[in-house]
Amino acid sequence: MGWSLGYLKPREPELLGGLFMSAGRALHLANSFESKCKYLLRIGNLVEAFEADPVLALQDAITTLPADKMLGPTLRDLGNRLSHARSWDIDVLDKAREARNFIAHEGANVGDICYADARRILAQVSRLRDAVTDLAQGDNIVSLWVFGTDEPREPAPTHLIDAYPEMVDKWVFGHFGELLDAGELPEQGATSWAEQGSAAPDGQA
């Protein structure tokens, strides 16, 4: 069918609702990650402008800032500008960039929703979860850099840093309950949240 929606009802509306909730939350995190990267680069460009001309007015410095770039060039510039950026950090950030691209372009793609069965949907959820894991690792690094920029005298919140990947996973995929960690995909016709021992997605109970 050429249209994305039609008169046929989806085979697995509850699983689709779970996937779409996860994809939406993942997209929020991906957008936030990209915004933080651009913010750090703008701050770096402002610092360079003031170092080159210490009497430059703030408004004049802002007008000289280059236009925002795509995420890939932004991350490369950050790596070149931040002396505390380790090669390991850059590798993690590049994986986060690839994860961001997957989330933005393919995160909820299961083809025609009327014919998407449980295995196809949960396979897509698994791929999305892998991408969110990579995104959370990169976002953790960038968030720490933003914190250090905004609160240079405050100690890093190590408890939050350590807990962040698990917090992200629970927020994005927690409504699936144990279904994603069961190790086996459900049988056809037995995919309701109750039958799989899982709570309903938020707002779908």
How would a textbook summarize the main sheet? none
The N- to C-terminal Cα distance equals: 31 Å
Q: How much is the average pLDDT?
A: 78
Computed structural class: mainly alpha
Instruction: Give me the strand/helix succession.
Output: HHHHHH
What form results from the Cα inertia axes?
elongated
Number of helices: 6
How helix-rich are the residues, as a percent range?
A: 55-70%
Give the total of beta strands: 0
Which consecutive residue ranges, at least 5 long each, have pLDDT under 50?
189-201
- Rg: 21 Å
Strand content: under 5%
Short description:
The protein has six helices and no strands. The protein is mainly α.
Helix/strand layout:
Blueprint: H1 13-52, H2 58-63, H3 71-81, H4 87-106, H5 118-150, H6 158-173
Fold and architecture overview:
- Helix content is 61%, strand content 0%.
- It has helices at 13-52, 58-63, 71-81, 87-106, 118-150, 158-173.
- By secondary structure, it is mostly helical.
- Helix 1 crosses helix 4 (87-106), helix 3 (71-81) runs antiparallel to helix 4 (87-106) and helix 4 packs across helix 5 (118-150).
Describe this protein with a few key phrases.
mainly alpha; elongated; 205 residues
